[in-house]
């Protein structure tokens, strides 16, 4: 009986939770009001806006007409990383779907086994859908930059 009391769900007081959330919000507002203002500094402006004939190589990627940006261009780092990540998540999701299907087949009518396999299948399908939507959002954002 003592063991059951140790693992019982704790009862959270709603008032304490609301006071905690309210105090965190108020602290953030106060800290945000007293923080010093920050401004962006263009460190490449004086170098890249020089009227000399030759500009340094660092200024070539900042040109607005440049479509081959090494960070977010078609062959850029971000594009490649998101593509690899989406493929990895897709492969893991498909393997998870196959394994959960096999688990459902081998459950032999056991309700607990079928339920666990169904949950795993649902999680894998949701993960695959999230990966597809995330890849679409990232590609949309990267093409608009």
Description:
By secondary structure, the protein is mainly alpha-helical. It has two domains: 13-66, no CATH class; 73-145. It is 64% helix and 0% strand. The chain has five helices and no strands. The protein has helices spanning 2-6, 14-34, 45-48, 77-105, 111-144. The radius of gyration is 27 Å and the shape is flat.
User: Strand percentage, roughly?
Assistant: under 5%
Which stretches are low in confidence, meaning pLDDT under 50 for 5 or more residues running? none
Q: Tell me the number of structural domains.
A: 2
From the spread of the alpha carbons, the general shape counts as: flat
| Percent in helix | 55-70%
Helix count, DSSP H or I runs of 4 or more residues: 5
How much is the average pLDDT? Answer: 77
Q: What's the alpha carbon Rg, rounded to whole Å?
A: 27 Å
User: Ends: how far apart?
Assistant: 62 Å
SSE order, as H and E?
A: HHHHH
Structural class: mainly alpha
Number of strands: 0
Largest sheet: none
């Amino acid at each position: 009986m003592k063991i059951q009391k140790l693992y019982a769900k704790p009862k959270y007081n709603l008032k304490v939770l609301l006071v905690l959330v309210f105090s965190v919000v108020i602290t953030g507002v106060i800290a945000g009001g007293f923080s010093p203002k920050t401004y962006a500094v263009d460190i490449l402006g004086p170098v890249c806006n020089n009227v000399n004939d030759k500009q340094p190589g660092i200024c070539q990627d900042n040109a607005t007409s440049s479509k081959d940006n090494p960070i977010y261009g078609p062959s850029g780092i971000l594009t490649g990383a998101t593509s690899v990540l989406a493929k990895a998540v897709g492969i893991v999701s498909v393997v998870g779907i196959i394994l959960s299907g096999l688990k459902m087949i081998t459950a032999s009518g056991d309700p607990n086994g079928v339920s666990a396999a169904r949950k795993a299948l649902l999680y894998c399908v949701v993960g695959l859908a999230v990966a597809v939507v995330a890849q679409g959002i990232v590609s949309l954002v990267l093409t608009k930059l």
